[in-house]
Write a structure and sequence with these properties.
2 domains, two-stranded antiparallel ribbon, about 150 residues
Amino acid sequence: MKLKEMERETEASEMNRSRIVSPQEWEAARQQLLVKEKELTRARDALAAERRRMPWLAVEKEYEFDGPKGKASLLDLFESRGQLVVYRAFFEPGVFGWPDHACPGCSLVADQVEGALRTWVQELRRRGTTWARIGQALQISRQSAWERFSGEE
């Protein structure tokens, strides 16, 4: 590395370095940031509430999935519950890494979810919600969420 490049790198790292302050100054800065964080949380919660109040769209198209127990309709995936959470796993031809491994993001989610999945699914069911995973490797054929629920082809 050339001397000029090293000088620029040092200057940049010094410019981005936070100041060292007293505990009182740090606490004051933390309290100011906390106010902004709470505003953001309230705004996110309000947006989520607005999303929950959105009108629903009837799904009138008949969808058929190949499941572990044979053919299944979209309604079948609900298992007589009022809500459905679908996790789409990308582990199939055409996905980065196939056939050696699944999509890295899907693998990350699966690793994080699988440990607590039994507990989460029980809680979802208690609340009238079904959890379903779809994807070729899971024996349920791929249909994108947009195709399934937007009504567009």
